[in-house]
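Quick check before the chapter quiz. The format below is the same one you will see on the exam, so make sure you can read both the input and the output lines.
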Amino acid sequence: MSGSQAADSTAVALDAWLNGPLGRRLLATERREVEAALENVFGAQFVQLGHWGPRDTFLPLARMPRRALVAEPGAAGDFVSHASSLALLSQSVDAVLLPHTLEYEPDAHEVLREVERVLVGEGHVLILGFEPLSSWAVRHRLTSAGYPAGLTHLWSRGRLRDWLRLLGFDIVATRRFVHVPPLEAIADGALARGLERIGARCDGRLGNVYLLKAKKRVYTLTPIRPRRRVARALTPAIQSP
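Here is the expected output.
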């Protein structure tokens, strides 16, 4: 199977899973969290980097006139571009959403470098990811094809915070949510609703999924005024009579 065929197969399997009971619950919860995180984010251009569910899952939440889904080859999007080498102008985007994108990329740090490049000063990046120490992470490690389909890496919030700070970002907020274990059989039942209520009382400390929000720092240059040189007074030589 060629690389493009494998990408197509992964995209089809992922879409099928996201359309199932557990995938729908995950997307609905993530949508609410992203909507809250975007309440105070404004600008002209919003980019979702990476295919994750239907196109209208996250894009309509941005209060910006221009919104686009940038997808990898083989996935549905407004245009195609590799996440580690974006076909976007530098400092042209006001906010970027990475919905589990880093977990599918071979070089997550390079993707964040590209995000920093295309963001304007004080632009925002929102990252969705699965907690490496969670029941979802356990199922991912026990599933040969990845769980969800095609997922290859899990990144801790601590690692992402370190990378973002090195790239010149300030961490604005992090949240954990989704307390249901990765079992389709209980995704829509009373047990799932009870687990979510218990998780909410714990302030999300046991959530399986996180959202990290960061802002690109702006460095202001303070002009240094040159020191004024005081000219020495020239005293004419005194000649002896």
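If your answer matched, good. The helical segments are 3-18, 21-37, 108-118, 135-142, 157-166, 190-201.
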